Fold this protein.
Amino acid sequence: MTSAELPPPGEPAGKSAGGEEHPSFDTSVAHVARIYDYWLGGKDNYAVDRAAGDAGVRAYPDLVYSVRANRAFLARAVRYLALEAGIRQFLDIGTGIPTSNNTHEVAQAAAPDSRVVYVDNDPVVLAHARALLTGSPEGATDYLDADLRDTDKILDEAAQTLDFSQPVAIVLMAILHLIGDQDDPYGIVSKLTAAGPAGSYLALSHVASDIDRKAVAEAREQVSSFMTVKQTYRDHAQVTRFFDGREIVEPGFVMVSEWRPVSAAEAATPSAIWCGVGRKI
Ligand SMILES: C[S@@+](CC[C@H](N)C(=O)[O-])C[C@H]1O[C@@H](n2cnc3c(N)ncnc32)[C@H](O)[C@@H]1O
């Protein structure tokens, strides 16, 4: 489905005036996938998402750089995993609305036999799932409509495409700040990473609570006022804890722009997002 096929602003879910079925979603409340799409320069967002996005940028003017640096980290991490770590299976949870350098494109450009399973719980991402399913003929690409908190469902259904007896990379980019402490984010990550053998990887990025503290906290308040989902930003030590017991890939836990940047400009991009890549031992 293209943006032109999404229901117009204000039209709730279900059927459009033309009678076609749309996934169920409310265009009067901002959604994180659509706000993020707006920050990335995409077109799959509504007035309320743009208002939320603009309020965030007013509070933290480097926000768009930060989000784009996150996306660039995703591509560098997946390329590293495919080319240098020899990973051929990726479970990318919190896919986002398709943009450039989606995980399957980067992985299959590096290794065409890569198998990628995407997971998201947003109906707009679901509406775009077909665009995510155009992988290389040698590999495989699949999409699951599931919530990160439902780890059993994710692992059961992903097992139709991925072989969990072989190394798998669990990719969790800019999603864990949408899981509050009451939902046990550390337990969720351990259950997911328990599924693969030694040699599997965890790659994640997480919005920081301890970089540009005041402006980032204000941006969180502003953006949250348009959304129903609560955001929990975490500090360096809390993000590092997701990797307990793992061998950490150099350069360790850094801002997304500092993780193996390919140019001086990339390295200098402001980013209030921590990241890391770790190997199961
Ligand atoms: C900020 S976007 C990040 C997109 C992409 N991972 C990236 O880094 O470019 C967060 C994504 O996570 C999805 N998401 C949020 N909470 C989720 C949950 N509980 N289960 C599954 N997906 C979720 C959102 O719908 C959105 O697509």
User: Anything to note?
Assistant: The first helix runs from residue 32 to 39. Residues 1-5, 8-21 have pLDDT under 50 and may be disordered. The pocket of S-adenosylmethionine is lined by residues 32-33, 36, 70-71, 74, 94-96, 120-122, 125, 147-149, 173-175, 178 (CB under 6 Å).
